[in-house]
Structures are given as C-alpha cells and as structure tokens.
Prior knowledge:
Blueprint: E1 3-5, E2 14-20, H1 24-31, E3 35-48, E4 60-64, E5 67-73, E6 83-89, H2 92-99, H3 107-113, E7 117-131, E8 134-141, E9 146-154, H4 160-173, H5 185-193, H6 195-205
Parallel strand pairs: 1-6
Antiparallel strand pairs: 2-6, 2-9, 3-4, 3-7, 4-5, 5-6, 7-8, 8-9
Helix pairs in contact: 5-6
Amino acid sequence: MGHSRVSSPAEEMIEVEKKFIVSQDELARLTAGAHLLGEEKHTDVYYDTPDHSLTKRSVWLRERSGKFELKFPLNADLRAKGVTSYDEIEDDLLIARKLGFPTEEKLGQAITALGYRSFATITTTRTKYEKEGFHIDVDDTDFGHSVVEIEVMVADKQDMAPAAQRILDFAVTQGIPVIKNVRGKVIEYLRRNNPEHFHALEEAWKTKL
Length: 209
C-alpha cells in the first residue's frame, strides 16, 4: 500500500503505487537492469471490528513485529486507475487518537477491549528493486499469492495524479499488462478465506474486487 509516513513537514513524502500480477517472463523483463535493494520477511496481523468498520473505509490496522501501524487513503480519485496512496501512522498514541480510542491505556489493550479482532495473519517475503527512479516490490505470501508493486515518491498531493500516470506509462514500456483491479495480499486472503468479509468490501467500495 502506498503511504506517507508521519514525520516533520520537511521530511514527509507521499508514496503512490500500483499493483500488478506478472508472469515469470514479465517479472524477469521488469527486473532486468534493476538494482536489487534487498529482501525482507515480515508477518502482519490485521485487525478490524466484527462489522468491518475500518476496512470498509479502506483503513488498515495491522501489527508487525510487535508494532502497530495504521494506513488510511489519501486520494480516493486515484482508485479509478487502480492506483493507491495511503497515509501511514506508526505511533501508538497518534493511532489511538485517529481511531478515537482512549489514550490512557496501551493500544493493544484498547484494541482488544473495544472488540477488535484479528481477521488475517500473513507472512510475506518482499524482494525490493529500484529501476529508472521507480521502486519495485515483489511480494510472495505464505498462502501462495504473489503481487508486484511499482511505486514512486512525491512531495505534494498535487503531484499524486501525474505520478500515477508515470507508473502506468512505465509499466507499458516494460511490457507489463496494466489491469485496473489487482487484488493485494489482504484482499486475496479474504477472497480465499473469508468470503463474507470480502463481499462486504465489494459492497462498501461499490466495485468488483
């Protein structure tokens, strides 16, 4: 998910991204000549209310390596192109305030006390590349779903739409098929394992996932 991390105004950048499903030949072409940045493996636990109040608004609360992160969309207009950009908060107090939680107790305790529950636990191996000014993340999950994300960083919200078009143009030059709706790992996990939650998101987002 594209995001901007909460930081000082001088440092804050906005990440715009598009997901792609590629064949092995297409992946080889995309990463040919790219700079390998490294590989990382992480396990994410995602939380929501029983009526999916967060995810129906495309808000994602997750725990990674004992730290909570909250992602929420910055520019809904980009979704028409299948491109996403999210703000990301990694500070427990700021997450609690954003969600309207009591701030006098630990975030994990508040999540449990308020009836939130985990709906997905996903381990991902991510291989990171850089090519022609774009970041390319290749994600392989423990349940067999693989997705490629092409990302670009911008400094201002007004640059988000042009950045989205740059990503699409770059994909075309690399011979990568551009499909509007590509399911990310969480959506695909829900499709396979929790159809009720999956269809609730389709209904809320008014789109076929």
